[in-house]
Amino acid sequence: MTESSPYVRITEPSGARPSRRDFLYIATAAMGTVGVAATIVPMVAQLEPDKATLAAGGPVELDLSKMQPGQQVIVRWRDHPIFVVNRPAAALKTLQSPKLLERLADPQSDEMQQPTYAQNWHRSANPNYGVFVGICTHLGCIPLYYPDPSASEPATDWLGGYFCPCHGSKYDLAGRVFSGVPAPYNLPVPPYRFVNDHMIRIGENPPNSHFDFASIRQI
Predict the structure, then answer these.
(1) What is the pLDDT of residue 31?
(2) In terms of DSSP H, where are the helices of the chain?
(3) Which of 43, 52, 92, 188 has the greatest number of beta carbons closer than 10 A?
(4) Is 94 helix (H, G, I), strand (E, B) or coil?
């Protein structure tokens, strides 16, 4: 894989605004108690899905074993950017904080923007990994990744999460939307399952689960 690959590019967590064509890139951040240290990691060949798979809209596999806490990888599935983030212990603690929950529009995920196996406080099949459709539920822009809970940007009293630069919608690191922003819904969670401890398959439900991705609400 080279830098000319149409499927991969490297950015920083709060880099330039991505376009709808920027479907696959890696954003990394070393999350600490003081701030964020953004790092660029080598491109990994297995992150590029097979072109026939992309064309058919079939499931896409992602190896999580090389992801560090705080790192995010974005893959393409059905022409959607899918955010996959490795959430460290501090981030998981924040997701349960009353200070955060009181600021969210749908903290309990009552709107079915996710399969039942992700309808929990971390909105995922495994608390350590968040998996979301990376398209703002307002007007379809791609939110930027700001994982640092101590940063003054993109907003004061920031607790870490996603910020949409188009109209100011905000989401936490579980993809839950904040109150008082244009976006009406949490970020959707696509169907996915763990093939093993280190591999997920996006676009395929676990056995005995029947989540229909077409049922989510996104405007």
Answers:
(1) 39
(2) 51-56, 89-95, 98-101
(3) 188
(4) helix
End-to-end CA distance of the chain, in Å?
35
User: Which pLDDT tens digit goes with each residue over 15-54?
Assistant: 444 444 344 444 433 333 223 333 323 333 344 555 555 5
- Least confident window among 32-46, 49-63, 136-150: 32-46
Provide the pLDDT for residue 63. Answer: 96
8-state DSSP, 177: B
Give the DSSP letter of residue 210.
Answer: -
Domain chopping of the chain, boundaries? 9-215
DSSP-assigned states of every residue in 108-125:
T--S--S-GGG-STT-SS
Q: Residue 80 corresponds to which tokens in the numbers above?
A: 């959607």
Residue corresponding to tokens 């398209």:
135
- Residue carrying structure tokens 């920027």: 22
Name residue, tokens 């905000």. 170
Residues 123-133: tens digit of each pLDDT: 999 999 999 99
What is the predicted pLDDT for the residue at 14? 54
In sequence order, which residues have a C-beta less than 8 Å from that of residue 118 and are 6 or more positions away? 109, 124, 125, 131, 189
Sequence-distant (≥ 6) Cβ neighbours of residue 112 within 8 angstroms: 119, 215, 216
